[in-house]
Amino acid sequence: MELRQLEYFVAVTEEASFTRAAARLHVAQPGVSAQIRQLERELGLPLLDRSGRTVRLTEAGSAVLPYARAALSAVAGARLVVDELTGLVRGHVTVGVVEWMKILDLPGLLAGFHRDHPQVEITLSEARAADMIDALRAGQLDLGFISMGAVPPEGLETQVILDQAVVAAVAPGDPLARRDTIPLNALRGRKLICLPKGTGVRTIIDDACAAAGFTPDVSFEIGDPLTLAQLAARGLGVAVLPESATLPYQDELHTIEITRPRMSGRIALAWRAGGPTGPAARALIDLARERMPAAAPTAAPASASPPAAPPAGGSGSAQG
């Protein structure tokens, strides 16, 4: 029995697919299949059920899985101890980001880390906040830049590095363009342009609307906040988005502060709480916390002039 066989077995189990496991391990799929079949022959029982669309554990596979994970963890721990005793920082770190990271200097952070630790391989991927949170908890990511609400996700430690208002933005000809502030209820029945479900800001919006007693009518879901702003500028609806996404389009958009309730979106550094973390991952987390210090809350800018009266009737009028 080889550690490589156990590693392949665990990867196929977690991915529920030989193809995805091979991509994750950066090896050819036939090699993964061959190694796991060799492991099954040695143990005398099939570990995986390959008959369906997804790969599932057999009864024997379920019994073997915790021991395979324990063996891999023990080997990783032994390597960490040796690295720490010798003062080496090497290995591999995985980082997840959300779209908002375009407004932060992530390339500068990673370039600085690579300069200090050239023996560490860095993997960077973009994903939804919900998926990254799961990956951080499972140890598949070492560090994540996640969007989140006021309460940190369970099982993670976080450091908020960006805190900004969630605002509404409309084209200048929209009835809401006469307002500088609106209650969330003013968006009831309006066609909204939002980030997709599973993102931190969308979760904040959906929860706030549910608390206000209505379901948002989302016409466009786009993962890039800047594209949301462009759609709103062309009169396709009301964009509800982080304030920073409206800044490049100030001449084309009217930005409105949402009150009752005020909403803010946060970007936070996130890493698994309490789990074993290698020296390379710890070095990256320490550098990120130093280079991207905790942010103070940021409110939406208030207009110097009093808000205009709401239009009479229509779905754009503010109620309460």
SSE pattern, N- to C-terminal: HHHEEHEHEHEEEEHEHEEEH
Helix content: 25-40%
Average pLDDT value? 84
Give the number of DSSP strands. 12
- How large is the share of residues in beta strands? 15-25%
How many DSSP helices? 9
Which spans of ≥5 residues are poorly predicted at pLDDT below 50? Answer: 298-320
Structural class label: alpha/beta
CATH topology of the largest domain: D-Maltodextrin-Binding Protein, domain 2
| Terminal Cα span | 68 Å
Quickly count the domains: 2
CATH architecture of the largest domain: 3-Layer(aba) Sandwich
Pfam families: HTH_1, LysR_substrate
GO molecular function: DNA binding; DNA-binding transcription factor activity
Keywords: DNA-binding, Transcription, Transcription regulation
Family: Belongs to the LysR transcriptional regulatory family.
